[in-house]
Specification:
The protein is of the alpha/beta class. The protein has 9 helices and 10 strands. Strands 5-6-2-7-1-8-9-10 form an 8-stranded mixed sheet, sandwiched between helices. It has a two-stranded antiparallel ribbon with strand order 3-4. Helix 1 packs across helix 9 and helix 3 packs across helix 4.
């Protein structure tokens, strides 16, 4: 890429920090991590937004029980703006709030990327300390557009322990550390590290191998922010939009409190 035309990344007025949650592979619980992080930040008193950038498989409306909600549209200075849905104190936006959940979004990559940009640029976010962006699996148009066009303060990488996951996640890390468009990797989160029954927190059952997140963090010289266990009620509570119950589980709250503390130390809020 020629240095004669350097990439100029824009800031979003009123948003102090934008954090991407990413993984090179689907099925690692990335959306749950993004939602839980947003919940924790909001509970700590930070003004928080959460954008579901997965155009083809949006999960935010179900996780927050807002499938029937429709954002209001207002005109500001001749520009159409969208009012986000607010739940648990978090400003939420997803393409799933505009389309029939039973129908596929038959959009090519550039159109999907444009849809994502429209949600960022035309949502009335107001003043936010942190905007969390939950990205789709892979390293496609949406990810590249985010990195090329917006000033992102950092990315969180989510993986599961097994080699199949960490192999794909390495590709995502290589994108986010690209010298031209990359952003700081704030750390690695190993999800589904083991299964621990809610009533027997001293027990650990290794289901998907072990050590993958630690190996990734060591290889790329970044923090291993947490190893999060499987939660026996997690699926049901997410399906019914009970994110407040998910994050208040003793097994998860400790982990996300720690993640939140580490992230806010890296990206402190200054007046």
């Amino acid at each position: 890429m020629s240095n004669a035309n350097p990439i100029v990344k824009k800031e979003i007025k009123g948003i102090k920090n934008i954090i991407i949650v990413a993984s090179g592979k689907g099925g690692v619980g990335k959306s749950t991590v993004a939602a839980s992080l947003a919940m924790t930040l909001a509970m700590e008193g930070y003004a928080t937004g959460l954008l579901d950038a997965d155009i083809y498989g949006p999960s935010l409306p179900m996780m927050f029980d807002i499938q029937e909600c429709r954002p209001s549209v207002v005109e500001e200075n001749g520009k159409t703006m969208i009012e986000p849905i607010v739940r648990f104190g978090i400003k939420l936006m997803s393409i799933g709030l505009f389309i029939d959940p039973a129908k596929a979004a038959i959009w090519r990559g550039p159109l999907a990327a444009n849809g994502m940009k429209q949600m960022i640029d035309q949502t009335e976010w107001g003043q936010l300390d942190y905007l969390i962006i939950d990205t789709p699996p892979g390293t496609g148009d949406i990810h590249i557009s985010l990195l090329q066009e917006y000033k992102i303060q950092g990315v969180l990488i989510v993986t599961t322990p097994q080699m199949l996951s960490t192999s794909d996640v390495q590709k995502a890390i290589s994108l986010y550390t690209d010298k031209t468009i990359g952003v700081p990797v704030l750390g690695v989160i190993e999800n589904m590290a083991w299964f621990t029954p809610e009533n027997h927190p001293e027990e650990k059952y290794i289901l998907f191998g072990k050590g993958g997140g630690e190996a990734l963090a060591r290889k790329f010289n970044v923090q291993l922010l947490a190893q999060i266990p499987l939660h026996e009620k997690l699926c049901q509570e997410c399906d019914y939009g009970k994110m407040n119950e998910v994050i208040n589980s003793s097994l998860l709250k400790t982990n996300f409190d720690s993640i939140c503390e580490k992230i806010t130390k890296q990206l402190p809020i200054t007046e």
